[in-house]
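Researcher: Re-running this chain for the archive, since the previous output was lost when a drive failed. Same request as before.
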Amino acid sequence: MILSLVISQVVSWLVMAGLVVALLALARQVGVLHMRVAPAGALTTAGGPAVGSGSPVIEANDLNGRHVHIGGPAKDKPLRLLMFVSAMCPLCKGLIPVAKSFAKDERLDLTFIGDDDVATQRKLIAQQGLESYTFVNGPDVGQAFAVGKLPYAVLMDADGVVLSKGLVNSREHLESLIIAHEMGVKSVQDYIASLKVVG
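Model: Regenerated structure tokens:
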């Protein structure tokens, strides 16, 4: 009886040791995969103002009729995020709450830009709780920044310099705009390409 109890204890300890070894091997493999898989950043486009250049200054009115400046210097706003969205874009609707949370966490001045009819935009604003945000509606801003696909974001500094830009559809993509700026590269893709050249 005692012998079978001892054998069962030894077997259970061997099984636990095997599980610990397997867990360590798995953790190592996850680390290797993490190093090999490139981060997915916002996809930059060739059109519009280049990263590092000054943004165009567009005089516009928001949906409440207030006069606003999009682009150019704004010393009271250290970092500004322009989010180009549409009520007809399902990805945009899912990303708007993410953009609001991201802007709050990163202390960004967030402005939404659209190009739908006014009634559609007002419905989107009500559905998404955007009443406290500046929402500019019209083609001028999108044309100035050469926005072809949505959702699209542009990050600018207080001097109106474009820090990063690109197509975004997740918080990770939005974060990549900040990361690219902090790393001093145009985009995460440029950074990865430079690593491949060095390696």
